[in-house]
Amino acid sequence: MTNLFKLANNFFETPILPNSKYALDKLLNNSGVEYHAVCQTCSAYLGQHSKDQPYEYCTNCNSETQLKNPSDENYFILIDPSVQIADLLHTYEDHYDYVMNKRIPNNENIMTDVYDGNVYTKFVSSLPPQQQSKYVTIIFNTDGAPKFENSKKSIWPIYLMLHELPQQERMNNLICCGLWFNEKKPDMILFMDKFVNMFNNITSQGIRCNIKNEDITITPYIVSCCVDSVARAPMQGMKQFNGYYGCNWCLHPGEHDGVMMYTLQDVPVSLRTHEDTLQLMLQSDIDHINFGVKYASPLINLPSFNIVDGFVPDYMHFCLEGVAK
């Protein structure tokens, strides 16, 4: 990487990138990265790790976990996205200013962008008047990818996408703010809890950003999440799709006929709501499951995030693969 940076610097009169390994390390080690240690034996959370700790003792299983190598599977990491969010909004400040101050809401039930959606418009109207032109909304995603072909270990990144960027640029400017690396799937209660804590701190402080030569504080909000059905269930605190009451959006009990099916013919179905689901979470645990709800999801602590409507059907599996018919 250092050599590539040196090559890039040769195109300019003065260096624009770190020109030595020391300068590169100093830049990367000051990027707001949090290391969180996990017991390799029982997967219990061991706390936020500092470089001064070569190992950590797990009181849950009485084992010692080595923490010398930051690339080991005893860690997951979270990365503060504030600087990247501020840079992207500044880069596309014309579009951001248009969305905040000049765009006229569509009142003819014509969907031209996410800004015309019911959830988005309801969210904006819920903000205090002074914040209705100084916010950014975010959809986040996570999924597993094998480290190598036929590898047992996989990486689960958390990606953020900003809605207030030009439509054609959103997918080209995803922000990675978390990484889980292990042979096991993420403990979503643990992974999401630390992610929510980090993001709530950012929301409470706001993000300083320069828009049209004006320094303003922008408040970021996570309003939606797009994941596949396997990841959605543990993130939402519910049964998986192949269990009774496994639908993420309604209270259809399901019918088992070789596989679990959720047919809507001749069956009166009630939709799940945020408020009712919160009540079910308070009454549920692993041994007492209510209407498919197993436990309280950490995502309920995100301000302005709806634990039901905040999850959206993923287009690839539902439509392109024909899962939903």
Instruction: Give the helix/strand class.
Output: alpha+beta
Largest sheet: 9 strands, mixed
Mean pLDDT: 86
Helical region count?
Answer: 9
Order of helices and strands: HHEEEEEHHHEEEEHEEHEEHH
Descriptive terms for the model:
single chain, 325 residues, alpha+beta, 9-stranded mixed beta sheet, two-stranded antiparallel sheet, globular
Structure description:
Strands 1, 2, 5, 6, 7, 8, 9, 10 and 11 form a nine-stranded mixed sheet that branches. Strand 12 (255-257) and strand 13 form a beta hairpin. The chain is of the alpha+beta class and 325 residues long. The model has no long low-confidence stretch (mean pLDDT 86). 27% of the residues lie in helices and 23% in strands. It has helices at 2-9, 21-28, 82-91, 93-102, 118-126, 188-205, 229-236, 274-283, 315-320; strands at residues 33-38, 45-49, 55-58, 63-66, 75-79, 135-142, 145-146, 154-162, 175-182, 207-211, 214-225, 255-257, 259-261. The chain has nine helices and 13 strands.
What's this entry about, in short?
The chain is an alpha+beta fold and 325 residues long. Helices cover 27% and strands 23% of the residues.
Protein topology:
Blueprint: H1 2-9, H2 21-28, E1 33-38, E2 45-49, E3 55-58, E4 63-66, E5 75-79, H3 82-91, H4 93-102, H5 118-126, E6 135-142, E7 145-146, E8 154-162, E9 175-182, H6 188-205, E10 207-211, E11 214-225, H7 229-236, E12 255-257, E13 259-261, H8 274-283, H9 315-320
Parallel strand pairs: 6-11
Antiparallel strand pairs: 1-2, 1-5, 3-4, 5-9, 6-8, 7-8, 8-9, 10-11, 12-13
